[in-house]
Amino acid sequence: MNGLGAMFSQTDLAGVTPLYNRFYRQYGVTVGLLRIDLLHPQISGNKWFKLLSLLQRLKSGERPRILSFGGAWSNHLHALAYVGNHFGVETLGMVRGHPDQPLTGMLADAQRWGMRLIYLGRDEYRRRGEPDFLAQLAIEYPGWDILPEGGSNADAVHGCSTIWQSVQGTDWSEPDYFLCAMGTGGTLAGVIAGRPSGTQVVGVPVLELGDAGEQMVRDLLSQAQVPDPQGWCLDHSGAFGGYAKLSHELSALLVSFEGQSGVQLDPVYTLKLLATLNRRIVRGQVAPGSRVLLLHSGGLQGRRGLASRLETGASAFVGPLLV
Ligand SMILES: *Cc1c(COP(=O)(O)O)cnc(C)c1O
After folding, report:
1. Domain 46-151 belongs to what topology?
2. Measured in angstroms, how far is the CA atom of residue 181 from the centroid of ligand 1?
3. What CATH code is assigned to 7-43+154-316?
4. Structural element, H or E, at residue 67
5. 190 Cα nearest atom in ligand 1
């Protein structure tokens, strides 16, 4: 295993993979994929930037105990458990679900890395952000650092604003559009915070958030004290029916894209991001001549849970694909 120490100067490993195909050529758009998925095999993609301030504290010798929240396939808990194991700190994951459910591959890894798992029922899990609930947790777990679901807090926003460093000094430093998938919004808020003035940031929620989506991003930006952020919007058409919902068409797009580009996508986030870009191009929301950068935020370990659904879905798809 490569040391985490080296990772602090590693943003230059995250290059841009250009995506060439007839569809983009026909519409006159230049598309690149920013490969932060390549930074680290376990602290995948955006999770590395979200945990950056924690990594820095751990590296400087602090040993906090960390509690956080996530679903049974949470990339965030997975990354956090890995970090805890690496630095020898205790981690605790509050998982939405029931202890009798079979352990997912993701949670099995987390447990192997020493994360203690506590299951919360649906109603209890829903309270994860409420002040009363958090106050109670602080009493039950004195001295623990409590990270919100997905790790999205002000630190995550600051960490993710440095994603832009990976394109500094390249011809991708100020694309016309930067597209980023959104779950809990910390990554997107960071990308907005670090946005060069000539770039429009488009966030793509992968679950049905409605207007609450914009509010989540605004709240995170204000927690991180980013003054008057401009130049961003959400495209709500990218949820495709809800979290981890996967149509036959999306599955077919993934198989076709991976065959053409040799780059793997995760079906929950980056696949929907790609599909949303393609739709925006067809809708005329991306002017000819534009340069578009898509964030490959990683999450490939989450594919394990969906591999068979992807195969069946892709082979059931009938019809033309855009790309
Ligand atoms: C967690 C995750 C996201 C969502 O990030 P948020 O900061 O929660 O919006 C996007 N892509 C991948 C691959 C992820 O694992």
Report:
1. Rossmann fold (3.40.50)
2. 7
3. 3.40.50.1100
4. strand 65-70
5. 7
